[in-house]
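Justification of resources, computational component.

The compute hours requested in this renewal are based largely on the per-chain cost of generating structure records like the one below. Each record pairs the submitted sequence with a full structure-token output. That output is archived, and it is also reused by downstream analysis tasks.
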Amino acid sequence: MSKEKKFVIILMIIILLSNSCILLNTAVTPSPYHYCEKNKKPYITSLTLRTKAESDLYDYALYVAQYLNRVGIEIRIRTNNMHTFLGHLLTTHDYDLFIAKNEDIPNFNERIYSKNGNFSIFNLDMSIPYVNMSLQEYDKIKSELSLIEQQNHTHRYQDLMMDKIVPMLPLFKPTAYRLTWSNIMGFMNGWRIIENLPHIHCDGLHLSQESTNELSFPGSWINLNPLLAKDQNSKDFCSLFMTKLLEISPDREPLFSSMITDWEIVEPSMIKFTIRDDVFWGPSFNITSRNEVSEELNPQDINQLMIGLKGEYSNGMNQKVTAKDVIFSLLVYGNSLVSHRSSEFSWISNIFESPTDEYTFYLEIDNDINTPELEPNGEFWWDLDVFILPEFFLNSTDTTITNTTSGLGMVGIYPEILNTSVWQSYSKSAFGSGMYMLDYYDNQKGVSVLEANPHWYNVSVVDNSFQTLEIKKIKVKKFEEDKILTQFIKGNLDYIDLGRELPFNVKSAFSDFRFNAHRYNNDSYVFLGFNVGRPFVGGRNNFKFLTKPGSEAYTKGVAVRKTICYSIDRDEMNNNIHNNEYTIAHVVIFPYTLFHYYEDIVTYKFDLCEAGEWIWSAGYLLCCTSLKNCRNPYSDNCKTSFSIIGLISILFLKRRKKIRK
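The structure output for this chain reads:
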């Protein structure tokens, strides 16, 4: 073949390649940003979105449908009553997408984080890539005693769930509010009034307030013995005069500013704890017959003090809190004879006092007492958030041995102990080692009064700092729920917790200069969930890995779910629906658990161009003008092709010149 013919053939190949690349950038090419003409079919697919028949959830669904329409996905919204909705979520899985609130789903934690959970609301199974890996990380979270290692495993778990699996797009966490009068200074956001008490003082008087060293807030109680108290109001009331073994911050971080001050893992399943050595039990006052005109409490008057089952009492300075009290408390919490929470403490395999230090104890942890091996349970930390009880007062000299739910034997607790006068008195005239002590209560007026405990150890759980109480008296008043805000505005209450279900007239209180609003996060959030067992959003797509360079670690199903996540403008939804008062959630765990919350991963901020990239990576064509300003990913390939063609042409021409010479 002549050189001229070879040149002609090569030139024709160059022209064909050039034409191919040009065509690649025209309407004939499978470009992800394919702009459809009017009246052309605009949808890639149609999906069913289910939600509960509730106004705010339906509003979310309408916005989601609007956003996904822009990327070629048609949404059919189906609303159901609560019973039917849960039936679809937990049984039939007759949906592609769903919008739900965590509080609507029974056993939500387990359904989100556990193996059983992954099989239920998201319809995941172990064979899907990364699911087994994520569950391994979750198991490590539960079995890891070290708080730092727990954090690390939780972060890796969230990274896998939100980047490689994507079973949901978190939407919003409602903001909850607390109100105080503006003369109350030093109140810290996030913390309740109980934890704030050592830090606050009154700068003058507000309407109807009688004293700057006195505060009133709503509340009530049924039983003052934490072993028997089942209602949250009773537990909150006990927090005023009792001390917790371990305090948990609003961000769900275990703090060592309450009774426990230090800890050390001494064996794989055993921890050594150190407690404060300067804490005294408050006086064991009997206040059952007291009222507002009773004489002042006097710990030196033995007639005012209750005597325990072992014949001992406390005057505020004669009984220290020691490891003996801690051990007794944890054992009785786990004893079904006296505790309604006994099953929660079945992980206590052993507990004993240090032979050389009465302020040190050892706790052995076993997550499964039915197996011979010790299985650490990293979730035990949150079970230590309990009130310490006085062993010298509540324990007896009876030699009967009874067992906890974990099989530990203890002496002194016997079946009839609840019927003793001491235990019955403690349920309505309890004492502890906290900031305040009970003075009197008036059931007819619905008020309980507490006085500052002069023997308190003066340490704030918020920051472990030394504090003295400026507020010397607390009045806890019982009101009907719908009357609380009105009583606050009248000045009869100094503080109220509104939660997130705000009364219709609360906005006026927010804008009133007389009041301060304090925001905090609670354990509620809303999310968009995927049924990853369905075609398009999952199904077989869960097992097809992408071939696009840089995306080979992701599957086609994940790419589709990422497309949907990037397509939803949560900022706009928050502005239009909630006036920007809600907070956007980003990860699969509860947003208020900031100790474990991890946002240093993909957070799916609204980005239609990113959505287009992912749907193209999954092999789907978009028919959508919303993406017309986005970069065409094929253009880089074309530039590369032209560069190669140009280089070949130059080399060929240079070679011809050399031959002619």
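The chain has 18 helices and 25 strands. The chain has a mean pLDDT of 87.
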